[in-house]
Amino acid sequence: MNFSLPSRVLGRAVTTLALALTMATATTGLLSGIEAQALPVTEGSFNFSGDEGDYISGGKSYAYTTASQDRMNVSGSSDHRVVSVSVRAANGDWWSLDLAAPSGTSLTTGTYTGATRYPFHSGSEPGLSLDGNGRGCNQLTGTFTISALEFGPQGYVKKLDATFVQHCEHSLPAARGEVHIENPAPPAELGLGLDVAVAGTASSLNGKATFHGTVSCNKPVRVSVGGDVTQVKKRDLIRGSFSASVSCTPGAPVAWTATAVPTGSVPFQKGDVEVEGRATATDPDYEQPVTVGETVAVRLSRV
């Protein structure tokens, strides 16, 4: 027995599925390419209205501001190609807006015509998507104009002034709106420093080698210190690795100590070793890992 759905119901079902996929994409970043953390908007507004027959707006008008306790978040891609804005209104409404430049270019001031649905637009086209409150387009055409845009590190969006027009399912009715965002100057990126002392020890008891040094930072972070050790003795290649974790605060270097265990049966011995050290921490403002490295010749003394 075969069943069929009326085309209007089927269209709504497909729209719901497409919206679900869009939400999943925004969450995972697999299709969107958004790499920066979505940050709260300090001062902003978002409003749009629709013609009668526009599916997204339902022919109604909507207006939200941070001054009215409506929450807004914004994020940008590290290549400055995409800006995404989300609204979680005090009345329970939720909306998302994505603006994307054609592949290989960065968003800048100007008008982008011939936009199609983000993130499924072709590389040569701009991308646009307004959806929310359970409504989304399967296909769309539109245009948007950016009159002001300022990026910071890691896709941080300091300022955005833009207008947009979106036609859902290529229909004549449209949703028209604008967004204005003003954020503080972006925080500095995390800076790390690593020092590996040129003197270490080799234990005659267990064959392990101990190393030490310092790390420095410009923000309070937890730093993972690690490294690989290589020593050549009488044609024996001796290898090992070490790791440690320390809390770093700005102002003064923080000491670390770690022990490397030889991977084979030959112990570390008195003499020179090569240490490839690295320090890694996550930038608390941008949620991005930062790693610095240093390769040092260390002389081991026997203990």
Structural commentary:
7% of the residues lie in helices and 53% in strands. The protein has 303 residues and is mainly beta. The strands form two sheets. Strands 1-4-5-6-8-7-9-10-11-2-3 form an eleven-stranded mixed β-sheet, with no helix packed on it. A seven-stranded mixed β-barrel has the order 13-14-17-16-15-18-19. A hairpin with a 5-residue loop joins strand 5 and strand 6. It is elongated and about 85 Å long. The termini are far apart.
Give the SSE layout.
Blueprint: H1 7-28, E1 39-40, E2 43-50, E3 61-65, E4 71-76, E5 82-88, E6 94-100, E7 110-117, E8 127-132, E9 140-151, E10 157-168, E11 175-182, E12 192-196, E13 199-202, E14 209-217, E15 221-233, E16 236-248, E17 254-262, E18 271-282, E19 289-302
Parallel strand pairs: 7-8, 13-19
Antiparallel strand pairs: 1-4, 2-3, 2-11, 4-5, 5-6, 6-8, 7-9, 9-10, 10-11, 12-14, 13-14, 14-17, 15-16, 15-18, 16-17, 18-19
